Amino acid sequence: MSDAGIEGVVAHPTYLGHIRRFFIEDDFVCMRAQGIDLETYFGVRFNAERIFFKVRDGEMPPPAHGRPWSQAMVGTFYNWMRDGFTRGEAGCVPVCGVGARSA
After folding, report:
1. 20 in Cβ contact with 2 (< 8 Å)
2. Distance in angstroms (rounded) separating the CA atoms of residues 35 and 25
3. Which of the pair, 90 or 86, is modelled with greater confidence?
4. Is residue 99 part of a domain?
5. End-to-end distance of the chain based on CA atoms, in angstroms?
6. 69 in a domain, yes or no?
7. I want to staple 4 with a disulfide (CB 3.0 to 4.6 A). Which of 21, 61, 69, 75 is the partner?
8. Is position 9 within any domain?
9. Domain count for the chain
10. 60-78 pLDDT, tens digit each
11. Band of the pLDDT at 2, cuts 50, 70, 90?
12. Is residue 98 included in any domain, yes or no?
């Protein structure tokens, strides 16, 4: 999973603006084999609680992959769940401040 370029916990993240950037192709392939869809909003929303506990506990991505989620990513994902799984709008990408992707 990617570090998504976030520097701190995003208070009110959206799937399109933040969460989808937390996953990379290796994650899609690995989790698809386990029946978890990380490639779509609905797949991530449906599996959100399961994903949260696995990343929080360091079980996902597998430690052997050497790409654990940062505390900022875990906190941001939690906030996304707490806020009701906001989808956001296509093309909506943070441009500055907390949550912006670094160039």
Report:
1. no
2. 15
3. 86
4. no
5. 18
6. yes
7. 21
8. yes
9. 1
10. 888 777 788 999 999 999 9
11. low
12. no
